[in-house]
Write a structure and sequence with these properties.
Chains A, B: It comes from Linnemannia elongata AG-77. 2 copies of one chain form a homodimer. Chain A is globular and about 70 Å long. In chain A, helix 1 runs parallel beside helix 2, helix 2 (122-137) packs across helix 3 and helix 5 (224-244) runs antiparallel to helix 6 (248-267). Chain A has helices spanning 75-94, 122-137, 144-151, 210-220, 224-244, 248-267, 278-290, 316-326, 338-341, 343-346, 384-387; strands at residues 4-12, 14-18, 23-25, 30-31, 35-39, 46-54, 61-64, 67-69, 105-112, 166-170, 181-186, 194-201, 298-301, 307-312, 331-332, 367-374, 380-382. In chain A, the strands form 4 sheets. Chain A has a 6-stranded mixed β-sheet. By secondary structure, the first copy, chain A, is of the alpha+beta class. The two termini of chain A are 28 Å apart. The A-B interface holds A 204-205, 222-223, 226-227, 230-231, 253, 256-257, 260-261, 263-265, 267-272, 274, 277-278, 281, 284, 288, 357-360 and B 204-205, 222-223, 226-227, 230-231, 253, 256-257, 260-261, 263-265, 267-272, 274, 277-278, 281, 284, 288, 357-360.
Chain lengths: 400, 400
């Protein structure tokens, strides 16, 4: 039996507070503007990937959530593999004692611990996990920023999932994309109090894919260029300053304004693109009402109807209580002990001065699930013997 | 009994294809950008106003849709009265033979022939009708453009309802607003083929008022200034050229892009303003699908969820058939004989190559009413003896 080389890692989801929308180079995935995100805890949401290299393998194979997928057809995945193998080959050429992994076939097995149908940012965590795990398998001497340049070519926002905490993706200027990379603005330990609540919103119809949508916006929105040139650069500076100062009201205001503007340029696209629905808009009205005497929470929406609500830990029980009023029947896993530690606050219903009329109470299941999580660390390396997804034969332990 | 002077007129609704949103002067109602509208037929939608001046009256009185309202509290109405009375006083000073009307008290009775709760543009037709009727009562030697300067101070878009056909409101530059006036781009006879279908959309919650909303956008939207400076001037030129050329696809594209952009700057407002709901967006998807092989219809949405669909007459039966598929149970008054003249087309359901999956079929009443109308003429003067709203005593004939 040939020698086995294997790595198993998890990588987090990140939710942008200054949004990425539009590519200046679609094959290298170079964005038209810089962006900034918060990395959410892998305890609630993560991708997990095991990659094994073995001379016994006759072909590269990939399983995603238990289903085998073609590698060749996925140009972005091929690019990530090619780049990391080339880096490994260079190392091997420089150091003859290294195992010859660059030439071996590999088996990749990747799973998300959250429903992919929920429309959460699974491609960010997925590609970050792929590239991070490859870098561990190949023992590449790259820091997370260097690695982000590779992950970016899998899925743009994946580059930001290589760090914990608060992460900027600097758009860069070079044609080869070498300066379009993620950098950490502040680690999760800087602002441990920042939490998030994800509302998984029911949606009758899947919207436009981000890949298609953003290029249609680049092509047809008269307002996008103004956003790129005149709005985002200052907003990035302001957001970084707000994070450094842990100024939640400023952080929240910028987050909400940027979410609004992202959906505004989608609407200014021709034909227009909609990601939010009436439930999403009710959540905006609810958070706006909640903030009327001071900013206590921020909503943000990616390319789908789901809301992510950022807030300091101390406001979360009140927010959950309000959400539960308008969206009865949402599933909730009390993984951060919100209900356990704040039973009265959670059961309180609407706050005293809250105008209940700002939204109707929705039917059961309008919000399917509420996930409570927090800002947290970047990719984690696990022990493949204990946590690996592949069995002795190099096939998924769990097959769908 | 004192001499009676009375005028009775009707004025039409207009629906903008280049939208007005934002004031540079809130008391004179001077806009931040020029706009352009199509005047819709009074046969379907109109305001009707009777105004009588009499020495028997002891005070100015106003009835709107059968309910007496305070004149004093309505600064905009006071402004329209003051301006037209001043013009009458000047005439009387110049010509001693004229009846002395400027000093008499008046009774105003105004009604809309369409439901005000429907969120249609009743303030435009209402103020246009008020000012037009005052001009007839006072026999003011003003053309419609001069009169539009007065009507504008009642409700901005009212200035455009003083003309039939295709009407631009030129924003003007002067501080006193004297050059902020409506001009006719083309009469309704230029493009008699242009029709409209209004979908009265069910809405659970009334949105922000336009008056409040637009000033919040002026204050907080980073994108509005770009729209004002860089988008609208060219769009006005392009729209005027499309109307002159009767180029429907171009007219439609500009109309849809401008509606999208108006709602985009509403969304870029902080906190964001929503006027469209899931039903409105379904109508956009339906029209977009209908246009996939060539532009045959244009949607536009004002500050509410109702859609106005412009299209050449020949496409209207097909459009009605599609709308009836997705929005069962909408009330329809066949006032333009659409169903009578096209029974087969109207009953045909979706066209052959139409992808039915672009929207779910909505529940009964999601669209409450469909109104079929067309581009038509400006205010009409009626015979008060036959059509007046006031009885012999100068009180409304019909009281709610």
């Amino acid at each position: 039996m040939a020698a086995i080389f294997e790595a198993t890692c998890t990588a987090p989801v990140n939710i942008a507070v200054v949004k990425y929308w539009g590519k200046r180079d679609t094959s290298l995935i170079l964005p038209t503007n810089s962006s900034l995100s918060v990395t959410l805890s892998q305890d609630q949401l993560h991708s997990k990937t095991s990659i094994r290299a073995s001379a016994d393998f006759t072909t590269d194979r990939l399983w995603l959530n238990g289903i085998e997928e073609s590698i060749e057809k996925n140009k972005r995945l091929v690019a990530c593999l090619r780049e990391t193998r080339a880096l490994r080959a260079t190392l091997e050429a420089e150091n003859a004692t290294l195992p010859k992994l660059a030439g071996l076939k590999i088996h990749i097995c990747s799973e998300n611990n959250f429903p992919t149908a929920a429309g959460l940012a699974s491609s960010a965590s997925g590609y970050a996990c792929l590239v991070y795990t490859l870098s561990k398998l190949f023992e590449l001497p790259l820091n997370a920023s260097d690695l982000s340049v590779v992950a970016r070519q899998g899925s743009g926002s994946a580059c930001r999932s290589l760090f914990g905490g608060f992460v900027a993706w600097e758009m860069g200027e070079k044609a080869d994309g070498s300066d379009s990379r993620a950098v950490q603005i502040a680690p999760e330990t800087h602002w441990p109090d920042l939490q998030a609540m994800i509302c998984v919103v029911s949606d009758e119809k899947k919207g436009t894919s981000s890949t298609e949508g953003m290029q249609l916006t680049v092509k047809t929105s008269a307002l996008l260029q103004h956003r790129i040139k005149d709005v985002v650069p200052k907003r990035m500076d302001d957001m970084i300053a707000a994070i450094h100062a842990k100024d939640f009201p400023k952080f929240a205001e910028l987050t909400m304004q940027d979410s609004n503007q992202f959906h505004a340029v989608c609407l200014d696209t021709y034909p227009p693109i909609f990601y939010m629905n009436d439930i999403s808009r009710a959540i905006i009205r609810i958070i706006t009402e909640y903030n009327k005497d001071g900013v206590k929470a921020a909503y943000t929406f990616d390319a789908g109807p789901n809301a992510v609500i950022y807030a300091p830990k101390e406001n979360m029980a009140e927010i959950f209580s309000i959400l539960s009023h308008y969206f009865p029947g949402a599933a909730f896993d009390d993984s951060l002990n919100l209900v356990k530690e704040n039973p009265e606050k959670v059961a309180a219903g609407l706050p005293q001065n809250f105008d209940a009329r700002i939204s109707p109470v929705f039917a059961q299941g309008a919000v399917k699930q509420i996930l409570h999580t927090k800002a947290d660390d970047g990719p984690r390396t696990l022990d493949s013997a204990q946590h690996g997804l592949l069995n002795a034969a190099g096939l998924p332990k769990r097959l769908a």
